[in-house]
Design a protein that fits this description.
about 110 residues; mainly alpha; 4 helices; about 0% strand
């Protein structure tokens, strides 16, 4: 029996971070990623205080769904979503807005 490789620390933090925006705070459950969540909470609070959390929350779930459909496409026989190009531009525009706000609030240093 082979043992699956453990997630890299970067993967664990990224997964925890995106879940913070997919669910309301009262619904957060990080199971074996409490350490990562505690480390990320101060940054999450900064994002929230600067109006960035709302923007991220508005599309994080949908972005993760599209990402997952690509990551697992080889395991299914489903076709790609027909609006992928349109959604890609929408996600890009929202991420660009977030980067501008991060710059404006000196959060990229």
């Amino acid at each position: 029996m082979t043992v699956p490789p453990t997630q890299s620390p970067q993967h664990r933090y990224a997964e925890t971070f995106i879940k913070m925006f997919q669910y309301e705070e009262k619904r957060w459950e990080f199971k074996d990623k409490e350490k990562e969540a505690e480390t990320l909470k101060p940054f999450y609070t900064k994002l929230k205080n600067n109006g960035i959390e709302t923007i991220l929350r508005s599309f994080a779930k949908e972005l993760a769904d599209y990402r997952n459909s690509f990551a697992h496409a080889w395991t299914t026989k489903k076709e790609a979503k027909s609006d992928i190009e349109k959604k890609g531009y929408l996600f890009y525009d929202k991420l660009e807005e977030i980067v501008r706000l991060l710059e404006k609030n000196s959060m990229l240093n």
